[in-house]
Amino acid sequence: MNxxxxxxxxxxxxxxxxxxxxxxxxxxxxxxxADVQELLMKSAQKNRPFSFADLKEIIATNDKxxxxxNSDETKIRANQGHSINIxxxxxxxxxxxxxxxxxxxxxxxxxxxxGLLKMSRQHVHLSKDRETAEKVGSRRGKPVIxxxxxxxxxxxGFSFFLSENGVWLTDHVPAGYxxxxx
Length: 182
Fold this sequence. Notes:
Elements (H helix, E strand, L loop, with lengths): L2 H17 L14 E2 H10 L6 H10 L5 E3 L5 E4 L20 E6 L3 H7 L1 E2 L6 E3 L3 H8 L5 E6 L1 H6 L5 E2 L5 E3 L1 E2 L4 E2 L3
Antiparallel strand pairs: 1-3, 2-3, 4-7, 5-10, 6-9, 7-11, 8-9
């Protein structure tokens, strides 16, 4: 499987496992898990065929580690980023002193007013390093990296969660905790 095929399948998996399993009639349980065989069968029925080996390769090589198998590889789920209501059974943890968020210039005015909002997702996503935030922001153009005083937020009572793939999650980042560097 070449890189373009991996990217296409990964985007399809994001749609199905994070946002709209009804696209192929896939059942996802309350914790976001889907049966691998059902996913493979229903994807093929919708002219989106891929193999179990393809899934394993995508999970193993995806730089953002978006997906994971359960222990016996019979179920798969997205690690975060859902717009559908699921419970990832995340536990709260103390965040690092600073986390980062990648965005683009056109969103800065709203962020200055409202802070970082989860919008249609279950959480605001924050990165542990600037490089990852830059990759995230560059998907929509020239990235702007915002530094979040997450340690201060935590001390002020905000909850943080760490997803399986190392993305920090929170419900909202008020603008007062964001360093805007021009």
